[in-house]
Every structure is written in C-alpha cells, then in structure tokens.
Structure to design on (718 residues):
C-alpha cells in the first residue's frame, strides 16, 4: 500500500503537473509504482533522465525542436522530483541543478534569446530567466513569481501564456525559491527581492519597464501583492490561488507542505517556522496596492480558504475577483480558464498602460 | 435507449472507454481534468454523447465570451476544444444517429470558427473526388516558401480535426499539412462508405495538392493513423508522387483479428463501411488488405507500432515490414494503439523522420 504522503501527492498534484507540461501518461507511470514518499525523488529523477536521453538523441540527430521539448520535460521531471521533497537536501540540490541545466538546454534549442540573469542581493544573488516575445522590439514585461514549492523551471508553459500575447516574462527564483533558496530563506517581506529584480532590468532597452506587471501563483500571489504594494513601477497584478496570510494555515497544511515550508524558511524549529508563517500577512499592506489587480481563485482550494481571496479584494482598492466554483488550488484543474484569463487581462492592462 | 450494466453499475462500454481512451483524448488536446470530470458524469453508454456535449458547450460559451472581448487567441483555443469534445461525443456513438450527426455538425462548425486564428491558421478546403468533394484542413508553415507537404489520413473513428495536434509537429518542422476526411470519415461518412482501394483518394488529393500555391509538388509525404495507416500504405503502394509515408499502428488486413476487436469498433466499421449486417461487415473488412500492395511499396515507409496495441496486434506491422521493400519498423515495447501513451516520442519521431525524407527546413529564425 502506498503511504499517506504518496497518496496525498498523487491525488492532489496530477492537474498541476500536467498543466505545467508533464505528460499525463508519465504522471500515471511514475506514480503507479510508488509506495514510499522516500522513493519519490528517485522516481521523478529517472523520468527526468529518460527525457534527457531523448533530448540528447534528438540533438545527435540534429532534431532541435524535439530536443528542446524533451529538455523542457526533463527539467520538469527533475523539478517535481524535489519540489516539496526535503528529506535529503543534498539530493534536493542535485535535482535542482539538473533541472536548471535541462531548462538551459531547452532554451538553447527552443528560445535562444532567453537569458539567465543573476541579480546581486545582499551577500547572495537572485536568479531569473528573461524571455522576450518574437517580433516585438520593446515588449511590456511580466514578472512571474513562484510560490512555496514552485521555481522558474516550472514556468516554461506559464511563460508561453504571456509570450504568445506579446509580453516578455521574467521568472524569478527569489528568497526560499529554487536555486536562490539554498542561500536565502523565504521571507515575508519578499517585496525587497522583487524590487531588486526590477532594478536589475531597468537599464535594458529591449523591454519596456513603463509597462510592467507581476503575476504570482499560490504563495507567489502573496509575494506579488506585496511587490505591487511597495513598488509603484508595477502597473498591474494578477494572483492565482494567492493567500491573504499563512499563519492560521500553518498547522493544517498537508504534512508534506509544512515540511517544505520549514526547509525553505531555513527554520531550526517548527516554532520558528510557524512564527515566519505568521509574519506572512497582507494586513495593513493592501491599502497601498492601488494598481489594478485581478484575483483568480478556486472555491474548492484545500490549501487556501477562498475567504482569503474575498478579503483581498475587499481591502485592495482596485482589485476584482474571479472565483471558479470548481477550481482547485491555483485552478490547475481549469488551466484553459485561468491561463487565458490571466494572459488576456495582463496584456490589456499593460498595452493600455 | 439504455445499455446493459455490469456489476458495480458501470456500463461495460463506459468502463472500457475510461480505461483505454484517456491517453488518446489527452494527446489530441482534451484537458486531463475535463476527461475526468466528463467521465464522472457518465454511468451508462446512452449518456456518452450528451455529456461530452455538455463539456463542449462550456467551451463554446468561453469562446463566445472571448470573441466578444476581442481575445482571439483564447477564443481559438476554446473553439478547438469545443470541437474536440463534440467529436468525442460522436466518434463511436452510433446508437443514436441523429444525436451523432448533430454532435458532428458542431465539431465541424466549432473548429471552423476558430480555424483562422490558429497558429498557423487552418484553411478549410474542398477537394474534387469523383462527382463529390472531400473536406480538408490545409495549414502552411510559418516562414517557408515552397514547403514540402504531408497528407494526413484519420482512421475508422477519427476526423481531420482530431489530427491537428499531430499536424502541428509537422508544421513546426517546416512542412505544410493537409488533413482529409476521406470516404467513411467525418464530413464524408454520410455519403461515401469506407474505400478499400484508398489509393483513389490519395491520387485525387495529390492531384489537388501539386497545384496548390506555396507547396513544393516534388516533396509530398503521407501520414495515416490506425485504419488511416492502412490507407497510408495503400497510398504508398500505388501513388508514385508520394516521396515518403508514415504508418502509425495500421492493420495489414482488417479482418485478421476481427473477433478480438472491441464491439464498438466493429459496430463503427459496420456502419461506416455501409454493410447491411455484421457478416457483411466482416467480409468487407477482409477487402482492406495489403496482400498485393505491400510488395509495391519501394519508397521509404516508416511503420510505427506498439507492442501493447489491443486493437491491431503487432503481427500486422511485422508482416508488412517483411513484405514491403521500402519499409522500416519502429516498435514501442509498451506502446498502445496510436502510441498515445508516448505521444512526445512517437510524434517527434514521425515528424523528424518525415522532415528528413522531405528535406524540410524549419522556418528561418
């Protein structure tokens, strides 16, 4: 019998994995044989390895497109191997590095103008990937913020939602996220990292920072709201499945997710982690968030109660809410609803800005 | 109309559908969550068509709303999904022909409404065939002049609209695509029965395609899936203007494993072949054979098959490859029918192979 963590993982993550580009058959094949949560990382790394082999074969045959698409899937396999799997941080880091490298090779094949940008930040650095839409000289930019357990390597398809609508994207590994997370723990005042990333892009002449938006998923929705409230260079905000606060949810989170929170906050004790979660709140922040804001939410979200989304739109002066009755966390069971909605809304806001 | 139920309450045909079709539906563009949600509303087979229609109508509404808001990309995606859901409602649902036809009309109409906004656009064409015409979708790759082209044949229960996700693999590699509803398929199935000598169709399409502006008449290939794989092999044997052919999970002779075919498949064949009864259907299935054709296939033929194909067993592919001088076999050990459980591998493989054979080049970047 699969253990409880495995059952929880399989039951809740299929739509997310598939939306982000994991093949539906792969999801079933990889998870079908799993019994113990301890085996999760190896199983998904093997999936990543399989796609990496396909990618290398395609490269050797000169099939660049097939290679690039296989590298995207390899990056996702390695990413989902460790996204909330924190049992051994050396193995975690190894998978992260493979994911980063696989996506680099995907960019090389599919979108050679993609750029890795390292942003000095204190004694460490933030890392983001900049992609620009084809045929647009100075594109508006959308800053894409991951959440607790997502990273820029998960966002290739999400980026395409905006790129296909003529918007550039900058997917950021901020504090507590992806390759940045090993140096920097997640922080409630994420806005300082978002502003540093925007600063680093401000001298570029191939994007138009007068038309800057931010989009955040899950806890990234909280980060996006903070970023916009404290940085008026941001003209529009989209959040999908974003919380108002994290403290009250700390003890009711699924065990896997709580372990990830503890690891990514570099907390020494569970009390310390709970205190960090409690500091993550939009109380007193949203009155500053005067830019247009679209809050997308699923009423069936079992990680964040939908009332938190309703509270956000009550307190943010210029926010509107789209609630999907059947939607799960981040509405990944309705990708064709939330993705075009977010993309079209952001495009209309930034093109009019 | 009701269907016999099995223990547990779930209709046998519904449980068969759930078990076997998820990979195909998803690989051809239906969202995973929609498949799950739609199937969860279906207990008996008689609900099948209507419930897929309900899912389709949600997309139609999304498409109309997006059109009204000027969001053409979103609208195109929603029309495409709506068309596909209507298609699933119809594809082997021959229990109520009025309902089936109505669903199919919506497939055609929804797809057509979003076709221009696809990237690249899909242009509806009508190709003379005897005293009639065959409907198809022609798509030209971005940024390529004088493009090679691939003719695409659906199978027993697929249609030109369902083939478009596969077409996009060819398009991305610089090849034009022309997916056709042939006799017994899609728009033609109401007036033309399945044609065992499909090369007649292939020749009519090729005649039209060589005159098509923007297409390089010397670089035309053919792709067919399932029963369309049989059509592809017939085309390769008898139509000399075809440079290369890919046959995905097609039969050598359609009656060889007749008794083992799912009842839905046999019923669909009986209907679309114009047979009067099941005995005649079986006899007609035997006329779909490559026995004379195989040895005539001297140009490159890529035969792709899955060892776990439960519709067309692997001996069909092995026999063809043994007899056809131009054939080579690529076997997927755990591949299902259509290799839709490994779509990323099978489709890239076919498109890369075809691009090589037709000397296709991707768009200048």
């Amino acid at each position: 019998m699969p253990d409880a963590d495995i059952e929880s993982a399989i039951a809740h993550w299929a739509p997310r994995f598939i939306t982000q580009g994991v093949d539906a058959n792969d999801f079933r094949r990889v998870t079908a044989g799993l019994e113990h949560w301890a085996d999760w990382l190896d199983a998904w790394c093997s999936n990543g390895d399989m796609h990496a082999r396909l990618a290398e074969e395609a490269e050797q045959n000169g099939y660049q497109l097939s290679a690039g698409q296989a590298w995207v899937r390899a990056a996702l396999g390695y990413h989902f191997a460790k996204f909330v799997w924190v049992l051994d941080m050396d193995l975690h880091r190894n998978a992260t590095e493979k994911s980063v490298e696989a996506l680099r090779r995907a960019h090389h094949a599919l979108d050679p103008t993609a750029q890795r940008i390292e942003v000095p930040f204190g004694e460490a650095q933030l890392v983001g990937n900049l992609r620009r839409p084809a045929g647009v000289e100075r594109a508006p930019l959308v800053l894409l913020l991951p959440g607790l357990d997502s990273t820029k390597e998960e966002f290739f398809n999400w980026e395409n939602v905006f790129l296909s609508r003529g918007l550039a994207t900058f997917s950021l590994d901020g504090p507590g996220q992806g390759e940045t997370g090993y140096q920097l723990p997640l922080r409630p005042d994420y806005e300082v990292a978002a502003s540093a990333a925007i600063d680093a892009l401000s001298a570029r002449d191939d994007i138009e920072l007068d038309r800057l938006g931010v989009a955040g998923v899950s806890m990234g929705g909280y980060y996006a709201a903070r970023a916009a409230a404290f940085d008026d260079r941001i003209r529009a905000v989209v959040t999908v499945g974003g919380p108002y606060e994290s403290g009250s949810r700390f003890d009711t989170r699924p065990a896997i997710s709580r372990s990830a929170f503890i690891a990514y906050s570099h907390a020494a004790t569970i009390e310390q982690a709970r205190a960090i979660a409690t500091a993550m709140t939009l109380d007193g922040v949203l009155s500053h968030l005067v830019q247009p804001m679209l809050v997308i939410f699923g009423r069936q979200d079992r990680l964040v109660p939908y009332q938190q989304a309703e509270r956000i739109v009550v307190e943010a002066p210029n926010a509107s809410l789209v609630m999907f009755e059947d939607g799960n966390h981040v509405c990944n069971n309705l990708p064709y609803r939330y993705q075009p909605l977010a993309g079209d809304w952001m495009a209309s806001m930034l093109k009019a800005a | 109309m009701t269907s016999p139920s099995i223990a547990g309450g779930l209709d046998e045909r519904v449980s068969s559908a759930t078990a076997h079709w998820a990979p195909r539906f998803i690989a051809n563009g239906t969202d995973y969550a929609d498949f799950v949600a739609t199937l969860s509303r279906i207990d008996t087979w008689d609900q099948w068509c209507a419930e897929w229609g309900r899912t389709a109508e949600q997309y139609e509404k999304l498409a109309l709303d997006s059109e009204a808001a000027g969001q053409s990309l979103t609208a195109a995606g929603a029309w495409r999904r709506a068309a596909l859901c209507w298609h699933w409602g119809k594809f082997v649902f021959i229990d109520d022909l009025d309902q089936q036809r109505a669903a199919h009309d919506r497939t055609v109409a929804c797809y057509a409404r979003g076709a221009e906004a696809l990237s690249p656009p899909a242009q509806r064409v009508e190709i003379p065939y005897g005293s009639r015409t065959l409907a198809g979708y022609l798509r030209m790759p971005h940024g390529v002049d004088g493009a090679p082209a691939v003719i695409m044949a659906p199978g027993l229960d697929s249609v030109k609209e369902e083939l478009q996700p596969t077409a996009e693999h060819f398009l991305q590699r610089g090849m034009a695509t022309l997916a056709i509803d042939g006799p017994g398929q899609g728009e033609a199935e109401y007036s033309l029965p399945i044609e065992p000598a499909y090369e007649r169709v292939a020749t009519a399409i090729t005649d039209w395609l060589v005159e098509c502006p923007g297409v390089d008449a010397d670089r035309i290939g053919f792709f067919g899936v399932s029963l369309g794989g049989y059509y592809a092999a017939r085309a390769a044997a008898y139509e000399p203007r075809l440079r290369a052919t890919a046959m995905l999970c097609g039969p050598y002779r359609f009656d060889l494993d007749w008794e083992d075919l799912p009842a839905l498949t046999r019923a669909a064949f009986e209907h679309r072949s114009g047979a009067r009864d099941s005995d005649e259907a079986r006899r007609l299935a035997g006329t779909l054979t490559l026995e004379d054709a195989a040895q005539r296939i001297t140009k490159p033929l890529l035969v792709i098959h899955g060892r776990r194909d439960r519709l067309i067993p692997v001996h069909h592919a092995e026999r063809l490859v043994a007899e056809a001088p131009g054939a080579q076999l690529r076997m997927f050990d755990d591949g299902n029918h259509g290799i839709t459980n490994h779509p990323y591998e099978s489709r890239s493989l076919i498109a890369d192979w075809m691009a090589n054979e037709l000397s296709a080049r991707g768009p200048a970047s």
Remarks:
- Residues 1-9 of chain B have pLDDT under 50 and may be disordered.
- Chain B touches chain A at residues 22-23, 26, 31-33, 37, 59, 62, 66, 69, 71, 73-74, 77-78, 81, 172-173, 340-345, 348-349, 351-352, 355, 362 (CB under 8 Å).
- Residues 73 and 360 of chain B are 28 Å apart (CA to CA).
